[in-house]
Specification:
Blueprint lengths: L1 E7 L3 H12 L4 E4 L12 E3 L2 E3 L14 H9 L7 E3 L6 E5 L4 E5 L3 H11 L4 H15 L10 H10 L6 H7 L4 H8 L14 H13 L2 E3 L2 H15 L3 E3 L4 E6 L5 E6 L4 E9 L3 H5 L9 H8 L6 E8 L22 H5 L7 E4 L21 E4 L17 E2 L1 E7 L11 H22 L8 E6 L1 H7 L28 E3 L8 H17 L1 H9 L2
Helix pairs in contact: 1-9, 1-15, 3-4, 4-8, 15-16
Length: 523
Amino acid sequence: MKYDYLVIGAGISGLSSALLLARFGFKVAVVEQAVRPAPLIEGFVRNNVYFETGFHYAGGLEDGGVLDRNLRFLGIAGHLQKVAFDPLAYDTVVQPESGFKFSFPQGYEALGDVLRERFPTQRQAVGEYFERLQLVTRKLPYYHYHSQGALLSSGLSLLHDQNLAQVLDELAITGELRTLLQVHCLLHGSLPSEVPFAIHAGVVDGYYRSAHTFKGGGRALVTALVTVLNQCGVDFFCRHRVEEIELTAAGAIDGIRCTNGVRMQASGCLATLHPQALLKLLPDSVFRPVYRRRLAALEESPGAEIVFLRCERKRGSTLGVRCERQRGSTLGARSLQAHKFGGRNFFFLPGPGPGKGIFDLEIPLSERLLYLNFSGVGGSGGSDASDSDWEGGVTAILPAPYYESGRTVVSSAKYADEKRRTGELVRERIVSLLPELELGLEVECVATSKTLKRINASTRGSLYGVKHKVGQFNPAAKTRLAGLFLAGQATAAPGLLGAVTSALMAVGGIVGHDRVEALRGDI
């Protein structure tokens, strides 16, 4: 069968792009090398415990928020149940050695009140910072309702303006307040001195407004997208790794060829691959040498050590992990304590000392920035199955250098042993920080930057792929090859909102941005 467009990659950006193309009447197929769509986002289940992988929480999901509107535009909002994080403490930042602790409440007004009370000498700076955040987001493509054609050039120019650190310097924001306003750099993987203020604003503005997950976590999101895509007649081809984008003798797109020998015809392709992986699918002559060098030189965000932990054990068993919230059962006091963290995140900062920046990747794991996500604990996420049968685990993320193939060669046994040691070290650190979990926390498995390289199809195993950095020109959605468009976090921004925005920008380049916005504005 011949298609109008083939979407390469079935992550959130690919699925969203396919859905938008189908809504505009195109015949579309999605081609994915993994065994099922969006394997990174949908998480995994071990011993009846659900673990989030690529989705932990989202901003902008309040009614009428930017992500809420985009999901309604995609037609999937009705298939999802939003679950709000703790309204008074969705993110808690702790520096254990100094005793510093701060919890973010939901909503600009509440957050502003708490920050001004906590930092009275910087009251004016707080207000100016929030004003600048909201002013910048109004200029970002597909963030608010505007004529997108006019916004694209002006909004994208912001990406080469000031970085976050420069804005904080300009507003004379210092000390613990500065730490709080840059701790969310972990959510996009670029340092405050690197990230364009516009990108940072687009990430944190949504979180300052609201923090949510979905009932069923990332798996529910993937299920909703696939359900609606099937209703729209989009074809899926999993276990199909694209080896080449085929061209006609005249140099136009003719389709793709997969490593299993399957060929599919199409007059257009929308690729959501890592930009450097895209170069391998086309002859060198398609892109100018300067463009190829630019893509090859794109800097990556850091990697990560990720530890997945379960926080409850079955009574009377040393191995059981089945949730004991079934009718007639009771949890031990220690296990029950884990539920009070449900719907919360923790950022544990490195200790004070020379050279110990909060994003320092060289300090030991026992001191490095530690992010804990409890979105599924207590049944708020986890699965679309009944709460009595499922429980969500805890995800711990520590930024780490990305993986460089061949730099260090270790045996599989040594690698497994290193992961076990990492898991136990992180577990012990969590217990020391949150002693309520002492008797109910066990390591399920550990992922490293090497794991991310394999699962994310990333060139270096980075957590967010290509970073966004002032002075680095990430690829635009439209390429010089007619019919070839790009989507994904590298083209727009990281996270769920960034993935959906990249799809809107790519499809807007195909059908016209104002046409997309007119339809989006009707929702």
